[in-house]
């Protein structure tokens, strides 16, 4: 795969902020940079992802991989019928995924709508589980910027540790990169100390080249994570798309010194899938990203299969889905 960092260099001592300021000085310079990124070899990306998906891990490493994947899960409920009771149950599962096994690690976070952030914050208090909230008119992103910023400020004021925003795909696909950039910058400022995950909605971007451009745009604008999908659009996360995003964060750190996280979301349902993604992370970005601080799964249905596989390792038999709570 082509390295996107190879197309430019930084002055000695310069870092991410200086690089972003240089690249985004004008709308024209931002467009020139994004369209100057090396094109993605689609056949090569697909083949590389497929090859890595066939890799296996040793049985002795499987327990470690399953526990790491559990620690990377963002348990999510984003439905119109969400209630405080449902959110409390989700938080309880995030804190104690397997109540019968105290050695089972907690999930990374729970993700809810802004109105339910106070319930989540109260429930997880004292634990390591973080509270994330979708904002900016999730999942469409099609409202004026002031409304998006109020959405973010409300979530942060309620105690959200992380904010998941959606980019305006209409603006991006129309080539209005500067508009998307300015919106991400404004949302990042509204987040304050909360981490910002920028959802690209890769299923609507149309090409791998656009996935690479959107990834760099989000990183240049100050996003702390780049995320594939809302989970409301198909296709959601795929191995080739995640490969391209991992290449982008790898090259961005090499160029600027700033590390950005990656979150594939939607469609990851089995422990086997999760391990494929962990192999992809290790082989593409490196083991620095094998940590919940830098890689997450947005896949609530994944957790029960991870727990089933974990139980099988311990007991030699499958416990079955009825032994674990529904999400």
TrEMBL record:
<dbReference type="InterPro" id="IPR011343">
    <property type="entry name" value="DeoC"/>
</dbReference>
<dbReference type="Pfam" id="PF01791">
    <property type="entry name" value="DeoC"/>
</dbReference>
<dbReference type="GO" id="GO:0016052">
    <property type="term" value="P:carbohydrate catabolic process"/>
</dbReference>
<dbReference type="GO" id="GO:0005737">
    <property type="term" value="C:cytoplasm"/>
</dbReference>
<dbReference type="GO" id="GO:0004139">
    <property type="term" value="F:deoxyribose-phosphate aldolase activity"/>
</dbReference>
<comment type="similarity">
    <text>Belongs to the DeoC/FbaB aldolase family. DeoC type 2 subfamily.</text>
</comment>
<comment type="pathway">
    <text>Carbohydrate degradation; 2-deoxy-D-ribose 1-phosphate degradation; D-glyceraldehyde 3-phosphate and acetaldehyde from 2-deoxy-alpha-D-ribose 1-phosphate: step 2/2.</text>
</comment>
<protein>
    <recommendedName>
        <fullName>Deoxyribose-phosphate aldolase</fullName>
        <ecNumber>4.1.2.4</ecNumber>
    </recommendedName>
</protein>
<dbReference type="InterPro" id="IPR002915">
    <property type="entry name" value="DeoC/FbaB/LacD_aldolase"/>
</dbReference>
<keyword id="KW-0704">Schiff base</keyword>
<keyword id="KW-0456">Lyase</keyword>
<dbReference type="GO" id="GO:0009264">
    <property type="term" value="P:deoxyribonucleotide catabolic process"/>
</dbReference>
<dbReference type="InterPro" id="IPR013785">
    <property type="entry name" value="Aldolase_TIM"/>
</dbReference>
